[in-house]
């Protein structure tokens, strides 16, 4: 389908004078209809088409983009002043368009005040698509991954250096999405728009846990993978902030400079510059109902079936991760961004993320597990497996820690994960170091066995190889991978979607992905599914594994009890591992 461009139209619906909601509809401007495009959405509400976007996967990744550039403008004191400065810059760009047929340009305005990216995103209400990603905020264990940035003053001088804490974006300068499994061609299509010289031009997104499985309705908006380079991005830095716009165009994709500028102007008209402090606390709103699939009886049967397969001498299966799907009904409509803000308080030593494509729900999470972090040729990953609750006292917490460290069953589960990741890294790295080899990683509510692995890639193109080889890890799938995946597909009766899949960002010289666990799919006025998973190995007990599901579900559902405006009853699609 060369030369086709998928256009995502933002449709604004006016219900009454006090309430405004947004919905997205799709249409394709090509003689060939995209397999993932949807017909234009019609309903009783007034509609208005305002924005259109370009799918970078439809281009030729072998053809370089004409220009990749970042320009830093004069530092300003506030987001409103940054908006004014960018509005002027856009008018100047319209008067002096570039002579190139393709390119990507980022204009960024440093802001003296440090403002939380999550609060800026919350101020944008339902502007879609949107994304958010923040790295670990705790640096005590030395595995933080904030990006060190030199921010110019607009006069060509680098005046101060800050760590990037988190980034939020709305609108899409270019997006990347297909129904087929994420491929080397798709990876090259994304990298085509990136450069090490422009480290903050990044593509945020996620990939399905199992791209070979059928996509269920709640995950259709994501496709097999979904990535976006934000049109408008707010970066939270240590001690300051930055507001940026990005324009991407490619005539070969029937997406010209004029169309890109018009799309950006439309998005800018919807951007709020007033940011209000969020209350990061739960309200104690009760959950009305919860239904598990499988129920406890059928869960026991599934675990016994897995143990029988593991203990069969002719079977290769060593470990399989089984999940549970639950339907949750609450009395309020959940604001996914407000919930994500609560997750930041809950998990300082974790990644927080949000990804919401047009016409789709919000995939939100707070995951402690890194898949990999690459900077140039240096790469690091982690093994995280086995679970205990945190103790109510320091003595009880230490007792639980020692029990976790001494458990033969948990040692086996953890060793399988660590050795598998080490083998995968060794296939593309010159040397792999495992340090620490086994320790306990303590989170706010639970604790896990943990190891850190690092190495050096032979070449940067091995990034795709390491992504495709590491995912899915034995911590969320099992071992051997294909045997475990087949067992899961035959046993589980629901679509995991992006749950337990890679979630993160690609950059020019740096990329980082977490494992999409401790996560939720939140959609207004629709059905709800809840997932939790646990690893089954020799020695596993069905009742104990059920209790672990309850522990993991409980810690997340408490956080979903947010103080939000009272509306109609809503169900939340939540995914927990």
UniProtKB/TrEMBL annotation:
Belongs to the isochorismate synthase family. Its cofactor is Mg(2+). It comes from Gossypium mustelinum (Cotton). Its main location: plastid. PANTHER family: ISOCHORISMATE SYNTHASE 2, CHLOROPLASTIC (PTHR47253:SF4), PTHR47253. GO terms for molecular function: isochorismate synthase activity. One of its GO terms (biological process) is defense response. This is isochorismate synthase. GO terms for cellular component: chloroplast. Pathway: Siderophore biosynthesis; salicylate biosynthesis. Isochorismate synthase involved in the synthesis of salicylic acid (SA) required for both local and systemic acquired resistance (LAR and SAR) while SA synthesized through the phenylalanine ammonium lyase (PAL) pathway seems to potentiate plant cell death. Also involved in phylloquinone (vitamin K1) synthesis. Has no isochorismate pyruvate lyase (IPL) activity.
């Amino acid at each position: 389908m060369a030369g086709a461009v998928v256009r995502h139209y933002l449709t604004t619906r006016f219900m009454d004078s006090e309430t405004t909601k947004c919905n997205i509809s799709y249409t394709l401007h090509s003689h060939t209809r995209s397999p993932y495009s949807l017909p234009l959405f019609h309903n009783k509400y007034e509609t208005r088409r305002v924005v259109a976007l370009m799918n970078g996967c439809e281009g030729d990744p072998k053809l370089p983009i004409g220009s990749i550039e970042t320009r830093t403008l004069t530092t300003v004191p506030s987001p409103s002043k940054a908006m004014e400065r960018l509005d002027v810059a856009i008018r100047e760009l319209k008067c002096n368009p570039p002579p190139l047929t393709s390119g990507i340009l980022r204009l960024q305005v440093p802001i003296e005040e440090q403002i939380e990216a999550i609060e800026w995103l919350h101020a944008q209400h339902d502007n879609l698509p949107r994304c958010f990603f923040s790295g670990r905020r705790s640096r005590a264990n030395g595995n933080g991954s904030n990006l060190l940035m030199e921010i110019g003053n607009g006069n060509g001088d680098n005046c101060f250096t800050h760590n990037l804490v988190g980034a939020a974006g709305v609108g899409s300068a270019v997006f990347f999405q297909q129904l087929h499994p994420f491929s080397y061609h798709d990876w090259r299509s994304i990298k085509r728009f990136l450069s090490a010289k422009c480290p903050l031009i990044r593509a945020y997104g996620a990939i399905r846990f199992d791209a070979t499985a059928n996509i269920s309705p709640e995950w259709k908006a994501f496709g097999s993978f979904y990535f976006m380079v934000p049109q408008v991005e707010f970066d939270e830095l240590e001690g300051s902030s930055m507001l940026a716009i990005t324009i991407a165009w490619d005539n070969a994709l029937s997406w010209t400079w004029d169309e890109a500028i018009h799309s950006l102007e439309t998005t800018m008209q919807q951007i709020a510059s007033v940011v209000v402090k969020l209350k990061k606390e739960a309200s104690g709103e009760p959950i009305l109902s919860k239904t598990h699939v499988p129920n406890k009886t059928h869960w026991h049967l599934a675990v016994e079936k897995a143990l029988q397969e593991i203990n069969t001498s002719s079977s290769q299966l060593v470990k399989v991760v089984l999940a549970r799907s639950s339907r949750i009904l609450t009395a309020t409509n959940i604001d996914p961004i407000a919930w994500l803000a609560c997750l930041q308080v809950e998990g300082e030593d974790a990644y927080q993320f949000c990804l919401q494509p047009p016409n789709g729900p919000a995939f939100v999470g707070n995951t402690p597990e890194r898949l990999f972090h690459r900077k140039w040729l240096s790469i690091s990953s982690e093994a995280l497996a086995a679970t205990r609750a945190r103790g109510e006292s320091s003595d009880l917490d230490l007792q639980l820690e020692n029990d976790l460290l001494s458990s033969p069953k948990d040692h086996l589960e953890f060793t399988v994960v660590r050795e598998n990741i080490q083998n995968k890294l060794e296939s593309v790295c010159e040397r792999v170091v495992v340090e620490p080899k086994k320790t306990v990683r303590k989170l706010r509510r639970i604790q896990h066995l943990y190891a850190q692995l690092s190495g050096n890639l032979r070449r940067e193109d091995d990034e795709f190889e390491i992504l495709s080889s590491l995912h899915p890890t034995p911590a969320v799938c099992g071992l051997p991978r294909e045997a475990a995946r087949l067992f899961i597909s035959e046993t589980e009766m629901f679509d995991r979607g992006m749950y337990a899949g890679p979630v993160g960002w690609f950059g020019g010289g740096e990329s980082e992905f977490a494992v999409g666990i401790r996560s939720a799919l939140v959609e207004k006025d629709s059905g709800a599914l809840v997932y939790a998973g646990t690893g089954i190995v020799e020695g596993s007990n069905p009742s104990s594994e059920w209790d672990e599901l309850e522990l993991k579900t409980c810690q997340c559902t408490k956080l979903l009890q947010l103080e939000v405006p009272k509306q109609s009853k809503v169900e939340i699609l939540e995914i927990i591992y």
